[in-house]
Every structure is written in C-alpha cells, then in structure tokens.
Amino acid sequence: MSRSAHPAGPRHADVLPEGHYSAPPADLNVLDRKVWAQTVTRADDGVVSVGGIPVTRLAEEFGTPAYILDEADFRARARAWRTAFGPDADVFYAGKAFLSRAVVRWLDEEGLNLDVCSGGELATALSAGMPAERIAFHGNNKSGEEIHRAISAGVGRIVVDSFQEIVRVAHAAQSLGKRQKVQIRITVGVEAHTHEFIATAHEDQKFGIPLAGGQAAEAVRRALQLDGLELIGIHSHIGSQIFDMSGFEVAAHRVVGLLRDIRDEHGVELPEIDLGGGLGIAYTSDDDPREPHEIAKALTEIVTRECENARLRTPRISVEPGRAIVGPTAFTLYEVGTVKPLEGLRTYVSVDGGMSDNIRTALYDAEYSVALVSRASDAAPTLARVVGKHCESGDIVVKDAFLPADLAPGDLIAVPATGAYCRSMASNYNHVLRPPVVAVEGGAARVIVRRETEEDLLRLDVG
Ligand SMILES: *Cc1c(COP(=O)(O)O)cnc(C)c1O
C-alpha cells in the first residue's frame, strides 16, 4: 500500500492504521540512527547533541525554530555518492533540495556537480565559485534571460524540456557565438514513488518531451540539425522518494531504446544518459533506503545490460540526488509553546514554526518523526500531533508521533530528516520569519543562512 494513502482520521488515537505506528517504540529516548544525522547522540544527562554541541546551547545561541545541519554528515553522504559512482559517472546534487553558498563550496570540495533550475539558483552557485562547466541547468520554462545567462556563464549542460526551448537555446548560443551542450529531457511513461511505480500513462505532466508517438525522436532530429547545439545525451527523471529500483529499470530500458533508434537513424551514439534523482531517505523508522553503492551498482548494471542488448557502447551515466544527500543531514529544532490533550483523540503540541518552515506534510501528506531533545523522559508515550503557529488547521508538521506524556511548554523537540525541501520551500505565510540554517561541525556552530528579520520583511514592502 502506498504510504501516502494511509487514512488519517480523527479516530487515529484508538484505531491506528495497519503498518503505521501500531505501538509506541519501547523507549522514546532512543534515537533511531536511520532518521537522525550521523553525529546526533543523546548524552547521559538526556540532552541531545549534534556535531558535539548540545541542542540546548544551539537554541540559546541561535534561537528556535532553526534548521541544524550536520556538516560532516553532508560531506560524508556527498562523498559516498561520488565514490559509489566512480570516475566514469557524474553526480549532480539537485540544488532545489537545499542550496546555499556554503553547500556549494562543500559540493565543489567533495567533487560533485550541481543542478540548478532557476536564475537564482544559478547565481548562488556561481557566486560561491562553482565552476560553470560543472553546473547543469534544468527547468520547463527557463526565461530568455536565464538561458542567455547560463550560456554566457558557460554551464556544462542545459537540459532542454520542450520543442520551443530547443530553438531558444540554439538561437541564444548562436547569438553568443557558442555551441551549447544539451541533453533532452524525455518522459518515458514511468512514474515512481516510494514503494510503487506506474509504468504507463505518466506522460500527463509538464516536464519533458514524451517518448510516445515519436515526439522524443523528433526532438532529437531537430536538435541534431541546429548549429548552436551539441546534443550530448538523454535525460529522464521518474519521481521522488523512491526505494524500488524497478522504475529505473523500465526507464533505462526505454531511454536506451531511444539511443538505439538514434544510432540507427542518424549514425550517432549519444555519449551520456542521465537517470535523474528521486532516491528515498528514512523519514520514519518504517523507511529502508538503499546505500549509494547499492544504487550505483544497480543503475550501472541496468544501463550496461540494456546497452549490450542494443549493441551500444555504454554511455556515461549521471545521477541527480538531492534529498538523498541533504535530507538526513538536518533536523528542525523547535520550542514547545502549548500542549493540548484532547480526551480520546490525541495531544496537540504547538511549536514556534510550522507550515512556513516545513510545507511537506501539508503539501504531500509527508510523514516525519519527532523526539524530545532537551531532556530524557520516563513518562508514558502519548499519541501526539505536532502543529505550527499558523492560522490554518492544516498547519501540521508531524501528523502522528509518540511523545512523552510529560511534554511541557519550554521543552525542545526536533524533527529529523528536514534537510531537503524544507528551507528551500519555506514561506513567509502569516509574515512569520524564515528560520536560519546553522551548520555544526567538530564542536563549532555557524550560521550559513541567517534568520529573517522584520526588517527583511518590511524592506520588500515599499508602502
Ligand atoms: C527534483 C529533481 C531531482 C532531485 O530529486 P530528489 O528527490 O531530491 O533526489 C533531480 N533531478 C531533477 C530533474 C529533479 O527535478
């Protein structure tokens, strides 16, 4: 059953859905290694620390809410992906998951490339010194200005997404006297999500050019004719939070089929294939993500086998993990403001942030875990819902979780695995100020994205 489809009704408290938290964990003080960043530990005094710093000290120094990011863990994950794929493949970090100049520098140092999908992300990458040739530019509606800027800067590749864009990129490149490397993004009729994938009828979406009906083949024909373009490969991205490799298997089969048709029609073997991102992480103890080396092995084997069958030279593979690198490396630290036990239902725990710092629960029905981190507790577990401070009843951070029954205002709680798509999707709803991102490493903490201030808000409001 798709985990996103589980019923979440008001009677959750006494009728827990099957396969969900059917029972509270044996000890709420134990932190599941799977969902917490690598250096997170609970000390003998009960206080949780990360990067050698107690969360109580982080809260005092930087305030709450705050995203706390374990730099050593980020670097280790980036390196693990790089090492797993080796020198004959490329790893592009998907900047949309979370991007800041510090992150760009870490990626550069760890030998990863970078995906951007807007002028703003491109500007961030360039201003932090990422070499342009290691940047890929994505998006289904890049503006003329963005295209011009990307080509002028010398980005390594533009992933073209439509027939119009093929022409726009070619013209822009020619007017700049350049030949731009491009990949064509195609949709292969596969949508993968978590434990399921749908292998037909998923061309009904805004991204890419459908393989079906010969449209992708026609796009290739046009791209090969244009002097401003150097077509280096085909791109396919099939979904998000994927655990099952079978969706990639079907996608690779179809992409390689197109490469074979291109060879047969044009006599060219395109040198690259990009399989996108979307690899899943553990948000709760129920999730079992794969290690980068397993993913690399599986993807390489699939592409190699498909190419052997098609009698093609195996192209250079690239992948684009975002969530799988940054997701597990951060948690959101909140202070509990109110605790409202509703008899026979659940306890509502209100924190000092909410849907403005984590929209994923409201938007995708995403599941998260949560723990009391400023102290240990021997109190009995109680079914809780962690909610924010916004004027909206859908303002839920963690839908169902067990917290100690003695939880009280002033306690610090933390929601793990919020490194991806939380700060990057944060909003100013209710004019709430977006939290900082604090990087911790080896006993030191530093702000890499500062907290918004009321001045920041008012600066945009010109009166
Ligand atoms: C979003 C996206 C990614 C990254 O997805 P994750 O789930 O964060 O790994 C990679 N490639 C493309 C084209 C994307 O749109």
From TrEMBL:
Question: Pfam families from the xrefs?
Answer: Orn_Arg_deC_N, Orn_DAP_Arg_deC
Q: Which InterPro entries match?
A: Ala_racemase/Decarboxylase_C, DAP_deCOOHase_LysA, De-COase2_C, De-COase2_CS, De-COase2_N, De-COase2_pyr-phos_BS, Orn/DAP/Arg_de-COase, PLP-binding_barrel
Residues reported in the UniProt entry to bind pyridoxal 5'-phosphate: 278, 320-323, 421
Chain ranges of the Orn/DAP/Arg decarboxylase 2 N-terminal domain: 72-327
Residue limits of the Orn/DAP/Arg decarboxylase 2 C-terminal domain?
A: 331-419
Q: Does this entry carry the keyword Amino-acid biosynthesis?
A: yes
**Primary enzyme class:** lyase
The reaction(s) this protein catalyses: meso-2,6-diaminopimelate + H(+) = L-lysine + CO2
Modification N6-(pyridoxal phosphate)lysine, positions: 96
Instruction: Give the range the annotation lists for the signal sequence.
Output: none
Do you know which SUPFAM superfamilies this protein is assigned to?
Alanine racemase C-terminal domain-like, PLP-binding barrel
Q: Which UniProt keywords apply?
A: Amino-acid biosynthesis, Decarboxylase, Lyase, Lysine biosynthesis, Pyridoxal phosphate
Q: Where does substrate bind?
A: 323, 360, 364, 392, 421
- Which pathway does it serve? Amino-acid biosynthesis; L-lysine biosynthesis via DAP pathway; L-lysine from DL-2,6-diaminopimelate: step 1/1
**Enzyme Commission (EC) number:** 4.1.1.20
Which cofactors are required for activity?
A: pyridoxal 5'-phosphate
Physiological role: Specifically catalyzes the decarboxylation of meso-diaminopimelate (meso-DAP) to L-lysine.
Subunit structure, interactors included: Homodimer.
Q: Which family does it belong to?
A: Belongs to the Orn/Lys/Arg decarboxylase class-II family. LysA subfamily.
Q: What is this protein called?
A: Diaminopimelate decarboxylase
